[in-house]
Specification:
Largest sheet: 6 strands, mixed
Distance between the termini: 35 Å
Radius of gyration: 18 Å
Strand content: 25-35%
Strand order of the largest sheet: 6-7-8-3-9-10
Number of strands: 10
Bound molecules: adenosine-5'-triphosphate
CATH topology: Rossmann fold
Number of helices: 8
Shape: globular
Amino acid sequence: MIRIEQLHKKFGKNKVLKGVDLTISKKGVFAILGPNGSGKTTLIKALLGMVIPDSGSLSVGDISIKKDWKYRDQIDYLPQIANFPANLTVKELISMIKDLRNRPGEDKKLITVFKLEPFLTKKLSNLSGGTKQKVNLVLTLMFDSPIIILDEPTTGLDPIALIHLKKIIKEEKSKGKIILITSHIMSFVEEMADEIVFLLEGKVYFKGTIEALKTETKESNFEHAIANLLTHEDA
Ligand SMILES: Nc1ncnc2c1ncn2[C@@H]1O[C@H](COP(=O)(O)OP(=O)(O)OP(=O)(O)O)[C@@H](O)[C@H]1O
């Protein structure tokens, strides 16, 4: 259960979140969408305690974020840009993250799925972008937490890795988890998301299923339905 009420956040004069209300009470995949700079990452970071809101309340699993930081242990988070320590090997990084989280972590299956064995002893600075993203995914998905937050998970992935990622997301969903995803790849969103949360002008402009969005915008095509929301902004 995630509950966000009247969340406000500005950076200097830039008011990014202007009263976001969002409740997610059931399992499923929720796509946080919105144009560049609409505050998707800021919202996610607020949920993780990495951005301190100016006002509003956030709770995860009935625990208010302000009162107790232990809630973070329930969340597995994939950052949009992973800044890995350049001189560590993949193996060293995986073991460091396990130590930091003080949890065992099921990395072996993920390493096999993403074919990372040949890279385990390689330094992170020597990996390609897509391989780094696969490592990023292993670090996130190895801990079986009830909430998963993936910020642009498809970045740099080849088609085979993408198929595996989609399979993993579906498996995690079937375990009853809440999965939040941001992505600009509409085909990925359409295939994966149970609900869309569309941020615009600092608020949740639309929340509902893809079918509901299509009905509301009178568009049978998902990409056009999203574009329709944006056209309304310009109007
Ligand atoms: N630490 C920060 N300091 C100053 N401004 C920031 C900071 N973080 C984000 N912003 C600004 O807040 C706004 C929202 O950024 P955010 O990264 O949340 O958007 P986004 O919806 O995730 O965008 P994108 O789709 O491009 O990833 C942008 O104008 C950004 O420049």
